[in-house]
Amino acid sequence: MRRFWASAGALSVLVSCASSPTVPSGDPVAEFELAAGESAAVSGTGLTVRFDRVVSDSRCPANALCITAGDAEIAVSVRRAGRPATGLSLRTLEGGNRVALGDWLLSFTQLSPYPFTDSPIAPGEYRATFRVDPVAQPARR
Fold first, then answer.
1. Residue 111: helix, strand or coil by DSSP?
2. Section 97-116 average pLDDT
3. 25-73 per-position pLDDT tens digit
4. Which CATH architecture has domain 13-134?
5. What is the torsion angle, in degrees rounded to the nearest 10, for the CA atoms of residue 134, residue 130, residue 94 and residue 56?
6. If 131 and its partner were Cys, which of 36, 44, 84, 107 is the partner (CB 3.0–4.6 Å)?
7. Is the dihedral of CA 114, 120, 123, 124 positive or negative?
8. pTM, whole model, 2 decimals?
């Protein structure tokens, strides 16, 4: 068990947060969560990711029967080292949930909380989970 915690500690990397020093974070190939309005500089990537807001949330509530799973869209701002911030729209549906940013791939992996029919979600309750990975390089022959 001690070995597990030592390994977990070795894998964690600090992500400096522009708006909150307590935002959980992760290194490349790890996930981190932001509340609306929070941002994090992802160590070793030159990227700063800001979760601006939820644009729409039409996901099927957990206590309902739906024909489709629905979708949610969020607005994100990403600043790459030495460049102005770029506004992005990311979605929970596969295909609209990731974007390549130079050598890095930003993925939007989860939006919480999940909706229920009887309890609306206030804008300040949303948390978006992101993942930053290196863009895969083609194998050399």
1. strand
2. 93
3. 444 456 899 999 999 999 889 999 999 999 999 999 988 888 888 899 9
4. Sandwich (2.60)
5. -150
6. 107
7. negative
8. 0.75
